[in-house]
Design goal:
single chain, 3 domains, 9-stranded antiparallel sheet, 21 strands, Membrane-bound Lytic Murein Transglycosylase D, Chain A, about 25% helix, 4-stranded antiparallel sheet, alpha+beta, disordered N terminus, Glucose Permease (Domain IIA)
Length: about 500
C-alpha cells in the first residue's frame, strides 16, 4: 500500500470514528474507542502471576493503517514513534491535525492516534524503569553513592581499583561511570547487585572475579571495565530506541524479537543489554517483574511512583555560537559521533580544528570559546563543562562538554563566562586523537542530546546532520552544506560569526 492509499485509509477511519462517536452520544451511551489497544500496565498496577513468561495478552494483528491509541512518553519524538509503529511522520500528522508540524519533543501524556503497520515477534510489554530514572539527571541530585555503598554489607564497599588515573573505592567507581556515561548511579548499583550481589554478598563469587557481568573479553577484565562495557551497551539500546534506529533485539539462541511499539527507551535499553549474554530463559526472567525491576525496587523503592519527566514538550536548544572566535575559520573534521565515552550511540558530538603549521598534534595559539553564557562547573585534564543554567548542577538544564583542551591557558573551574570568552586551546590531549581539535557535545537534564535529532545541534544556524557513518556528517545553513573532513580543506572550512 503506497502513501496515497494510506492517506485515504486514514481519512476513512477518521470519518468512521467520528460517525460512531456521534451515534453513541445521541444514544446517551458511554463512548468507547473503536480500537481497543492493550495498555502498558505500570508495575504498580500489574497483576502478573509468579510465572512472568506471559504477563500480558498478545497484541492483535492490526489491519494495515489501523489507528491505535498512543500516550506520548517522556522524550518521545515523531520520527522515532513512526519507526516504532512502522509508519511515517506524515501519516501521524494527518491523523493528529492539532499537532504542530514543527514540534520537537512530545509532552509526556499527550494522546495521539498512530497508524500502525504490523510486525511479527513483538516483545514484552512490561516496562522496567522510567526514562527519567535511567539517566543521571535531576532525579539523582542529592543521592550520595559512596555513603549508600558503604552502608551495605556487600563486597563493593571494600572494592578498590585504579581507574581514570587514580585509585577508587566501589562507590567512587560507580560515580565515575555514572558521570562519564550519564547513567543513573542507582541503575548501575542495581545492575551490579542483580548480576553479582555487589551490595548484599560479602564476597564476589570466584566464577565472577574476571568477568563479573558476563562479557568474556580480555580487554574488559575486572569489575570496572565490565561496568564500562555495560554502560556503553545500555546507552546504545537507550539512544537507538530514542532515535528510532533500533529495529530488533537478537537473543543468544539465535532468535529475535521486535521491541513492543509502546515501550519506553529505558526498558528497551535493559532488553538490549540482557539479550546479549543471557540464555533465553534468563533473559525472559530478567526483563519481567521478578528480574532486574524487582532488584531495583528492593533497593530504591517503586520507580513508577511520582515519576517526574525530565524532557519537556517541544524542547528547544538555546542559541549557541561556533566553538571558536568570530572571524576565525576552522575545519569541521568530525560529523555526529560518540558523545563522550564508549562506542556507538549516542551520536551527539562534533569536532572542529584550526589550521596548524605543523599538522597532526601541533600546538596552536587559537582558542576554543564559550558557545553561550554560563558557568564552568567542572574541569579535568583536557575537559571543561559549561553549565548554561548556572545552578552548579551538571545533572540539570543544558550543559556543553568540551574535550581535548590543552593544559595551557585552560579556563578555571567555577568561572562565569560570556559567549565568546576563551575556554582553552584545542589539542590532542585527553584520549586518542591524531590531530589538534576540540570535541563538543550537549546534554539536557542528564540526557545526551544527539546532534541529528528532534532537537538538532544548531550553532549560528549551522545544523548538524549525520552521514553514512559516524564522523562523516554535515553542517547545513541556508542551503550551504559543509561536509566533515579529516583536514582543514576548503570543503570543510567554516567561519564563525558570518550572518
Amino acid at each position: 500500500m503506497d502513501s496515497k492509499q494510506h492517506s485515504v485509509k486514514n481519512r476513512l477511519l477518521f470519518a468512521l470514528n467520528i460517525l460512531m462517536v456521534v451515534g453513541l452520544l445521541s444514544a446517551c451511551t458511554e463512548v468507547q474507542s473503536t480500537m481497543v489497544v492493550p495498555p502498558i500496565v505500570s508495575p504498580t498496577q500489574s497483576t502478573l502471576e509468579a510465572d512472568s513468561s506471559t504477563p500480558y495478552p498478545s497484541r492483535p494483528v492490526y489491519p494495515p493503517g489501523t489507528l491505535v491509541d498512543y500516550t506520548a512518553q517522556n522524550g518521545d519524538n515523531l520520527a522515532a514513534i513512526a519507526n516504532h509503529f512502522n509508519t511515517n511522520v506524515a501519516e501521524i500528522l494527518e491523523a493528529n491535525p492539532l499537532l504542530p508540524k514543527t514540534i520537537t519533543t512530545l509532552q509526556a501524556g499527550f494522546q495521539l492516534k498512530i497508524p500502525i503497520y504490523y510486525k511479527a515477534l513483538w516483545g514484552s510489554q512490561f516496562q522496567i524503569l522510567p526514562d527519567a530514572l535511567y539517566v543521571n539527571g535531576p532525579a539523582q541530585t542529592g543521592f550520595d553513592t559512596i555513603s549508600y555503598v558503604n552502608s551495605q554489607p556487600g563486597w563493593l564497599k571494600n572494592y578498590t581499583v585504579f581507574a581514570d588515573d587514580k585509585m577508587r573505592t566501589g562507590g567512587e567507581l560507580i560515580d565515575l561511570v555514572a558521570l562519564n556515561y550519564s547513567i543513573s548511579p542507582r541503575v548501575l548499583l542495581a545492575l551490579a547487585e542483580y548480576q553479582t550481589g555487589a551490595l548484599s554478598q560479602p564476597e564476589l563469587a570466584d566464577n565472577l572475579r574476571v568477568y563479573p557481568l558476563g562479557y568474556e573479553n580480555q580487554l574488559y577484565r575486572g569489575f570496572y571495565l565490565q561496568l564500562v562495557w555495560a554502560a556503553s551497551l545500555l546507552n546504545n539500546g537507550y539512544y537507538r530506541w530514542r532515535n528510532g534506529s533500533l529495529d530488533e533485539i537478537n537473543r543468544t539462541d539465535g532468535t529475535l524479537e521486535i521491541p513492543d511499539p509502546w515501550q519506553n527507551a529505558a526498558t528497551v535499553a535493559f532488553q538490549h543489554y540482557f539479550s546479549q549474554k543471557l540464555s533465553l530463559q534468563d533473559y525472559d526472567y530478567a526483563i519481567h517483574e521478578n528480574g532486574f525491576y524487582q532488584t531495583y525496587k528492593s533497593l530504591f523503592g517503586d520507580p513508577w511512583i511520582e515519576v517526574q519527566p525530565h524532557i519537556p514538550g517541544n524542547l528547544q536548544q538555546p542559541d549557541l555560537v561556533l566553538p571558536f572566535a568570530v572571524g576565525k575559520t576552522w575545519a569541521f573534521t568530525g560529523g555526529p559521533h560518540e558523545s563522550w565515552w564508549g562506542s556507538g550511540e549516542p551520536y551527539g558530538a562534533l569536532d572542529f580544528a584550526p589550521a596548524t603549521a605543523g599538522g597532526g598534534c601541533s600546538t596552536t595559539d587559537e582558542f576554543v570559546v564559550a558557545m553561550a553564557d554560563g558557568q564552568i562547573i567542572r574541569t579535568e585534564p583536557a575537559i571543561a563543562v559549561l553549565d548554561l543554567d548556572m545552578d552548579g548542577n551538571e545533572r540539570t538544564g543544558w550543559v556543553i562538554y568540551y574535550l581535548h583542551l590543552g593544559s595551557n591557558d585552560m579556563v578555571s573551574q567555577g568561572k562565569m563566562v560570556k559567549t565568546g570568552d576563551t575556554i582553552g586551546h584545542p589539542s590532542c590531549e585527553g584520549g586518542a586523537s591524531t590531530g589538534t581539535h576540540v570535541h563538543i557535545a550537549r546534554k539536557y537534564n542528564g540526557e545526551w542530546m544527539e546532534a541529528d535529532s528532534a532537537v538538532p545541534f544548531n550553532m549560528e544556524g549551522w545544523i548538524a546532520k549525520i552521514g553514512v557513518r559516524p564522523y562523516l556528517g554535515t553542517l547545513t545553513r541556508k542551503g550551504n552544506v559543509i561536509t566533515a573532513s579529516d583536514s582543514a580543506s576548503g570543503r570543510s572550512a567554516i567561519t564563525a560569526g558570518l550572518k
